Amino acid sequence: MQEKKWWHDKVIYEIYPKSFKDDNNDGIGDIKGIISKLDYLKDLGVDIIWITPFFLSPMVDNGYDVEDYTKVNPIFGTMDDVDLLLDELKKREMYLMIDIVANHTSDKHPWFIESRKSKDNPYRDFYIWRETPPYERTSCFGDSAWTLDPLTNEYYYHEFAKEQPDLNWENPKVMDAFSSFIEFWLKKGVKGIRFDVIHFLGKEIDKDIHGYGPTLHEKVKELKHKSFGKYDIVTVGEAWGELQNAIDFSSYENDELDMVFQFEHTSYTNDRNKHGKWTPRPINMKDIRDILFKYQRALNDVAWNTLFVENHDLGRAINRFGDLNYYRESGTMIPTMMYFLKGTPYLYQGQEIGMINIRMNDISEYEDVEIHGSFKNLVLDNHILTRHQFMEACYQEGRDNNRTPFQWANKRNAGWNRSHKPWLKINENYHYINAEDEIKDPSSILNYYKKVFALRKDERYASTFVYGSFKEAYLENENVFSFTREDDKNLLLIVCNMHPYPTDIYLSSQGEILLHNYEEKEIHEGNNTLLPYESFVIKLR
Ligand code: TEU
Ligand code: CA
Questions:
Q1: Per-residue confidence at 272, pLDDT binned at 50, 70, 90?
Q2: Environment class of residue 172 by beta-carbon count within 10 Å: exposed (0-12), middle (13-18) or buried (19+)?
Q3: Where are the alpha helices (DSSP H) in 63-108?
Q4: Mapping DSSP to helix (H, G, I), strand (E, B) and coil, where does residue 52 land?
């Protein structure tokens, strides 16, 4: 059984700083822009903000290529801005979670600049160098994972872009350096850490082992012991893998991380494709139900779950799990389905106002290093996909879908800045999908999200939603996503029609409606025909 933690009842909101709000009108989002929107976030029901890396970086991968882990990237602002952000968060009883990228650095990091100078350089074995590649491997971003460096005529390894050389976690100096980076930020009052691709720390290159190598968990335990384990903070690891991996990382018994992001429900069809997400296939909502219920059952009193449908690497949830023909209905079904399950709700910027994927006209309109690398590999170099096929995959799965500037208002540049051309195209639908208009519209997706988090925190039901037991309901009806949450105070039933067509469910008792995305429609004891994406929460006891 888990001991109670301060963050168990908190809602976490992910911010991609480059896209959130451009305060100084230079076309790039910034920390002052985040500070200007803290009241908006507090009003939404957000407790912790996770900001993706804002450290010094050449921005090849928008901050996931770190040049200095203890310096703030001047394009986002200054350390004074971060200190002000921490103060402003504290005033609102909100907290900051940072994003630690431990698998690799930027090729502009001083360590790599030293490492590549000579084979006997003291920093040489901070990275992974070989005379010749032991095998061929394509990086996550489409080029070879081995790049020849002319200075010493050896190859270095990189899981991602060639500008992101992988660190050698067999070298104890790397562990010590990251322990000090982490303490630097925790001493400033940071209360959470998201660990980027934490599963890659166990790689054993010469055995062609990349994620989940035999030394992974001892390394994570050591890093915890040497740094974040000394602080009462919340930790979450990005860990692409299976259910058992989630348990290995976040079980109360193993005591490594508090929780992990698994991507089975967002990416299961891609994992079965030869070219991953670049040959996307439609998902089946019954599969999604089975996957999410599998994690609920398996982690129930073993480990703490994450509840998310979007992040800065995925496409928008309404495009993936909903239906643009039932935009509001499916846009309100999604948070009802996700955020009353057991675990910590994670919300990605723009999800709460129903932002959706952007259809670019040409590959040149995309910015993402993963899109351009994969386009070069699959279209230009190897003619595996046509340009049209690739553009369609980008519309469905491209990371830039979730990186277009946040749509604040039906104003110039969507109210994101005053006038400067944004670094990435704004979705033209900001005229009718924007925070300002939705705040004023009682039936908006934004106001529905506020109700979801307000209900989850309502003192009459909070203990049930946070700690209550989970149990599937109406499993025989493959069109509904339904479950109960129960403790000695309440028996709460959540029902979602996952489809755009009606389906029937039988309610054995009347119950009290706590939330309903078709407010005018009656729900009663006996048979109920659910309308497209109709979703509700009902108190049965
Ligand atoms: O993502 C790791 C990762 O595997 C995803 O980028 C995945 O390759 C794909 O994009 C999912 O659709 C993390 C960060 O979240 C990502 O933004 C970084 O680009 C990457 O690591 C390298 O740091
Ligand atoms: Ca700016």
A1: confident
A2: exposed
A3: 79-91
A4: coil
Of 67, 238, 329, 368, which residue is the catalytic one?
A: 238
Supply the pLDDT for residue 255. 84
Strands 95-100 and 55-56: unpaired
Containing 32, the helix (H) or strand (E) segment is: helix 31-35
Question: pLDDT per residue over 314-327, tens digit each?
Answer: 999 999 999 999 99
**Residue recorded with tokens 């991996």:** 245
Q: Which of 264, 287, 283 is nearest to 481 (CA)?
A: 287
pLDDT value, residue 492: 98
Give the DSSP H/E element, type plus range, for residue 528.
Answer: strand 526-530
- d(CA 442, CA 439) in angstroms, rounded, equals 7
pLDDT exceeds cutoff 90 at 480? yes
Instruction: Order across the sheet with 129-130: list the strands.
Output: 129-130, 154-157, 146-149
Distance (angstroms) between ligand 1 centre and the Cα of 290 equals 25
Q: Between β-strands 234-238 and 259-261, what pairing exists: parallel, antiparallel or unpaired?
A: parallel
Euclidean distance between CA atoms 108 and 277, whole angstroms: 30
Which ligand 1 atom is nearest residue 270's CA? 12
- Of 9, 125, 154, 196, which one is the catalytic site residue? 196
Q: Cα(248)–Cα(237) distance, rounded to whole angstroms?
A: 12
